[in-house]
Amino acid sequence: MNPIPDHIKDNLNVLFVGFNPSIRSSKTGHHFANPTNRFWSILYKAGITERKYEPTEDYKLLDIGYGLTNIVARPTRNAQEIEPEEYRAGKLQLIEKISLYKPKIVCFVGKGVYQEYSGKKNIPWGKQLNSIVPDTIDFVAPSSSGLVRMKIDEIAAIYSELPKLLNAIE
Fold first, then answer.
1. 9, 28, 37, 150: most buried by Cβ count inside 10 Å?
2. Which domain does 116 fall in, by range?
3. Which residues on neighbouring strands pair with residue 67, listed in sequence order?
4. Please, what is the Cα angle at 26 between 25 and 27, to 5 degrees?
5. Is residue 8 part of a domain?
6. What pLDDT was estimated at residue 2?
7. pLDDT digits (tens, 9 = 90+) for 75-134
8. Is residue 97 part of a domain?
9. How far apart are CA 84 and CA 45, in angstroms?
């Protein structure tokens, strides 16, 4: 299985950070490519994108100020297969990426991703009081995995805070 490329550039509005690529993403070379993953529907329902993008269009998010990366590059069937040392290395690499590219907001797609990144356990949804990298905002949203039991409208409501937050900081 192959890692998939980051879609990242300087001064993004939001950098979305997932756990790691799925097997399907590895095979296709695109983020959130598993048909059961609701990421693309959530972005549209939350008002972040003007239409529902397809996974094959993931790179087009850069054109509207959004980027994609993962805390761990190695594809797996599920996040439970990720080793602790992979998270430690991934956290350091992610801090470097955020420091280098300086996105306004880093949106962690799942509390577990942010727990691994921050070392914190009790995490509310939305904007975090303190960010790991200065001059950026850490934002925690539910995972878009089809395994998450929250309704898509509930998840989209949390993601819909991102455009409001962007407007407040600009």
1. 37
2. 14-169
3. 15
4. 90
5. no
6. 80
7. 988 888 999 999 999 999 999 999 999 999 999 999 999 999 999 999 999 999 999 999
8. yes
9. 34
Asked if residues 116 and 71 have their Cβ atoms less than 8 Å apart, the reply is yes
CA distance 24 to 77: 9
pLDDT higher than threshold 80 for residue 1: no
Beta bridge partners of 18: 70
Integer Cα distance of 139 and 106 in angstroms: 6
Residue 117 maps to which CATH number? 3.40.470.10
CA 5 to chain centroid: 14
**Strands 66-70 and 126-127, bridge-based pairing:** unpaired
Report which secondary-structure segment, H or E, holds 108: strand 105-109
List Cα–Cα distances, 60 to 27, 54, 64, 124, 164, in angstroms. Answer: 19, 10, 7, 30, 22
Rounded CA-CA distance 170/167 in Å is 5
